[in-house]
Specification:
Elements lengths: L1 E5 L4 E6 L4 E7 L3 E6 L5 E6 L3 E6 L5 E6 L5 E6 L5 E6 L3 E7 L5 E7 L6 E6 L5 E6 L4 E5 L4 E2 L35 E6 L5 E6 L3 E6 L20 E4 L5 E6 L5 E6 L5 E5 L5
Antiparallel strand pairs: 1-2, 2-3, 4-5, 5-6, 6-7, 8-9, 9-10, 10-11, 12-13, 13-14, 14-15, 16-17, 17-18, 18-19, 20-21, 21-22
């Protein structure tokens, strides 16, 4: 299988997980986030100057570039049907685009309402709604087709998400240790099979939980009574910025911050 990374050195790279070699490389400006389209044809990238780009996934040639923000793009995501592309920004907004068959982006709306940096965005499986997690510990919801804020969050309590990267939510409440604050966990990612959750934190650990990760409920102070059992992988020497499952959930790819390391972890079922 292959996967893509981006870095502050301005490179976007595609790697072969089996051979652990780079199979494609392109030089841009400082990049913060990257994702594949559902069909694997395109790679979306967010840069620190507020620009987003869509690349050909095979040779990393630039198909489209748009700049609607003045500061960092913090997260990018294609919708499951491949028709939309969302880019969260440090300027407290999400830019929503339509994607055509050639990878061109058509700006639809600037989704406002966040009170601080947007950290994570996730589409529902039917591509109808977008969940947004912010640095202010907000969970916001938007109607994708209407391109506007959706205030009836209760209506989405049973919604199924194509990805789940939000560090907040009922299904991930068990990721937090009792002594943790909201900045300790950097990223979560649900497995493609929907039964596992990987988290990364400031201690350099990559942890795998069952999903949903609920635990044993909260005490009167809102703290988790008991953290669910999990497996921790230690290898990074600094905080871990992201971790994802590969397509068949057999491998986890994690990327470090100051240690400049990419690590591959084999997922082994426990008896």
């Amino acid at each position: 299988s292959i996967y893509a990374t981006c870095a502050e050195d301005g490179t976007v790279r595609v790697w072969n997980a089996a051979t652990k070699e780079t199979v494609a490389r392109a030089q841009f400006t400082k990049a913060h986030c990257v994702c594949y389209s559902p069909d694997g044809k395109f790679i979306g990238v967010g840069f620190d100057n507020g620009r987003v780009a869509v690349l050909n996934a095979l040779d990393l040639s630039e198909l489209c570039k748009v700049r609607k923000q003045r500061r960092d793009i913090t997260c990018v995501r294609f919708s499951p049907d491949g028709k939309y592309f969302a880019a969260g920004a440090a300027m407290r907004a999400v830019n929503l685009y339509k994607v055509d068959a050639d990878g061109d982006l058509d700006h639809v709306a600037n989704l406002s309402g966040a009170t601080s940096n947007v950290l994570h965005v996730d589409f529902t499986k039917d591509s109808k709604y977008l969940q947004v997690c912010t640095k202010s510990y907000e969970l916001l919801y938007y109607d994708v087709e209407e391109a506007k804020f959706f205030p009836k969050s209760r209506d989405l309590k049973d919604a199924e998400y194509a990805t789940f990267t939000s560090i907040l939510g009922w299904s991930v409440q068990g990721i937090w240790a009792k002594e943790a604050d909201g900045s300790d966990i950097n990223m979560v990612n649900k497995s493609n099979g929907g039964n596992l959750l990987v988290t990364t934190d400031d201690d350099g650990a990559v942890r795998v939980f069952n999903y949903p990760c609920v635990g044993s409920g909260l005490d009167r102070r809102g703290k988790l009574n008991r953290r669910p059992e999990h497996v921790a992988g230690l290898g990074h020497s600094e905080h871990v910025t992201n971790a994802v499952f590969n397509a068949d959930d057999s491998t986890i790819i994690s990327v470090g911050g100051a240690d400049n390391a990419i690590m591959q972890w084999k997922v082994v079922a426990q008896a």
